[in-house]
Amino acid sequence: MTGGLPKGEVFSADCPSRRLLGEVTSKWGVLVLVALREGPLRWSELLRRIGGVSEKMLARTLRSFEAEGLVLRDARPVVPPHVEYSLTEAGHEVTARLVPLVAWAEEHAIRTSGTGDRAHG
Question: Of the candidates 107, 106, 108, 93, which has an alpha carbon nearest to the alpha carbon of residue 24?
């Protein structure tokens, strides 16, 4: 590690870690991971939980995280189809690092809103 960062090429434009970092730290990426931290959720539950996310962005984010090994898609062969999304071990690991950031953002937004009584969210 140099200066607290791993020896890698994250600053290089073509480093794969930069793409993954961008996906994980995107607005929808953070919210999907944090929403799944307490257990599996179905598609419709995620859509309701994450206010403002479009179906297209939710699908894109979930597909990306599944490909990266952060989210597991469990499709059960029943009628009607039952699909649940959950965090993998790597997903739990990265989410544990994101939760303090989300908590800081919520707290900071309240402190800087000027009223001090703004609701979380």
Answer: 93
* Average pLDDT rounded to a whole number, residues 57-80: 95
Q: What are the beta bridge partners of residue 8?
A: none
d(CA 119, CA 48): 18
The answer, yes or no, to whether the previous bond of 81 is cis (omega within 30 of 0) is no
Average pLDDT over residues 102-114: 83
Type of residue found at 86: S
Alpha-carbon gap, residue 56 to 38, rounded angstroms: 24
Per cent of the chain over pLDDT 90 is: 63
State the Cα–Cα distance between residues 71 and 36, nearest whole angstrom.
Answer: 9
